[in-house]
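This follows on from our talk about sequence and fold. Go ahead and set the record down below:
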Amino acid sequence: MTQREIKVKEEEAEGRLDLFLAKKLASDFSRTRLKEMIHAGQVLVNDKEVKAHYRVREGDRIILEISDRASMDTREESIPLTILHEDEDVLLIDKPAGMVVHPAYGNLEHTLVNALLYHTRHQLSSLGGKVRPGIVHRLDKETSGVLVVAKNDSAHRFLAKQFKAHSITRIYEAIVKGIVQHDEIRCEEPVGRAFLNRKKVIVKPSGGKQALTYFHVMERFQNATRIEAKPYTGRTHQIRVHLAYLGHPVLGDLIYGGASPLIKRHALHARNLAFVHPRTKEKMSFSSELPHDMQQLLMVLKG
């Protein structure tokens, strides 16, 4: 981890922090990456964490904590991929549980991005920078299922607009602890990073970001429930955090519920993804079958 210090000059004052940094560091980081760093608490102003919309003032001392990986070129690796669809603009992947989407501290290799660089011969959008080429959205490491990748900048922008407008349909399946009483649940609790553990997300009635998830019960067992989850917003760990808040954490979720003897990872699967294609403007929908470990879990619960 390295640090970089910037002091705000008189003529630079009064602009938003994210815009100020995007202009100042245009050759090093994308605006998206800088926003992520601010959100993760890696950007301090006068030794305090602030929001992306903080207005910089003359004399402000800005410190950026930069992971050493940020300036590294991500190398390609020959890793098998399950491809659901591919054309000149998009690539649909059925991501296995246990695969990290893009390099990060502690996971510099064997990620989906490493595999994508090899498969596409580096023909991916550049908007995510060197560390996240082609990545429009993410799935947690232990979450399996459908993920769309952009192969050029135009496709990336078009898909990103759909995610921002919440017009992309995402449907997940989860197996959760306990018997969920209501057939339909709407959870709209705001969420945000925990103050003492930046890797953990919690429900934050004050200061959290808007988050909305719809849940539908598919099947009930003796002490577990199979549910369908439709996130309207796309906050980090949103489904897992909302389910834990409702008292029904995902089975096997080490962060929000605890280990389970029935499955070695959290039982969450991105089953379906539907969006408008960036070139043809046609609605496309892709699905992934429930992976073997979750099928086995269901068999045990039914048995």
In short: Residues 2-66 form a domain with the Structural Genomics Hypothetical 15.5 Kd Protein In mrcA-pckA Intergenic Region; Chain A fold (CATH 3.10.290.10). The radius of gyration is 20 Å.
